[in-house]
Amino acid sequence: MKRKMFAIAVFVLAAALSFSACAGTQQPAAEPSAAGQPAASSAQPAPGEKITMKISHVSSPGSARDLGCQKLKEVVEATVGDKVEAQVYPSSQLGGQRDQVEGAQFGTIECVVVPTSYLGGTTPMMTLLDTPYLLPGDPEQLYELYHSDAIKALMDTTTEKGFYTKAIWQTGYKAWTANKPLIDPAEMQGLK
Prior knowledge:
Largest sheet: 5 strands, mixed
Number of strands: 7
Shape: elongated
Helix content: 10-25%
């Protein structure tokens, strides 16, 4: 028997381009300082020049993650297309997940979609979302949790590391298998 649990991905938007910048207020590109805080850069596009927004992920073209990124590209360009050209880079074209998170921190990638487990090295609290059996199995309760102040506070923990978490995106269920049912954590005791 399989116990299903939501696996979570985090939609991370780098400090180099926030949604307010997409809406027309140009902001300088940012890189984390030695303290991990975004530091202003003098690099700005020339008047009338489009900003290129790199949207990166590790999944293959046509996957759910890629389709979500393609939709984001469509929305960004429909909203501010005269100022921003969004480009989607699937299949780890801009590096593995750790490279992509670091690219978001340093402002070389404007947007990455990664599982929260890949943020553990920089923001350990984000891995709470990967804790087995912690999140509600009922989708309505899960989405209510996603919009709670607690989750907003959790997403804010990445800001001090030089990037912004803009949303949580559930990408399906995690399946646990064994030679016996795994309905609750106690049933995992003694298993490897």
